[in-house]
Write a structure and sequence with these properties.
The chain contains 5 helices and 2 strands; from the N terminus they run ββααααα. The chain is mainly alpha-helical and about 130 residues long. The radius of gyration is 15 Å and the shape is elongated.
Length: about 130
């Protein structure tokens, strides 16, 4: 089975009941390049991906422990960092997970967020010709 690929229009729909979100906020990314330069954006992206691994471990651990506060903090941090870099699909997935109702025994599945992380990495690799 092949890896999921983002559609050419930069949009992806994970589930039928979830509205499509663009992979990138192109205005935000353009503003970062204009104000900071492409090299700084690449450094910020590398830092994001390094931090992202720890945040996902933290979120998964919070789900396993049923720790709503810890999960909320991890998702909030991930959403903020993704938004700052113009990673719209990641930010939207984190927002949906953070806002979702948690019934007894019903905890969020991080699969959608993991998929958006993978799709964003793939889209970045396609834009730059190499993985970020």
């Amino acid at each position: 089975m092949s890896e999921p690929q983002p559609p050419a229009d930069g949009r992806h729909q994970c589930r039928d009941d979830v509205p499509r979100a663009p992979v990138f906020d192109l205005d935000q990314r353009g503003m970062l390049v204009a104000e900071l330069g492409a090299d700084v954006l690449i450094e910020l992206e590398a830092s994001f991906w390094n931090d992202c691994s720890g945040l996902m471990v933290r979120a998964a651990g919070a789900c396993a422990r049923r720790d709503r506060s810890e999960l909320g903090e991890a998702l909030h941090t991930l959403k903020g960092a993704a938004s700052n870099l113009g990673f719209a699909a990641i930010a939207a997935a984190a927002t949906r997970l953070r806002a979702g109702p948690f019934a007894v025994g019903d905890w969020p599945d991080l699969t959608e967020l993991e998929l958006q992380l993978a799709l964003t990495r793939e889209a970045l690799a396609g834009k730059s010709g190499q993985a970020s």
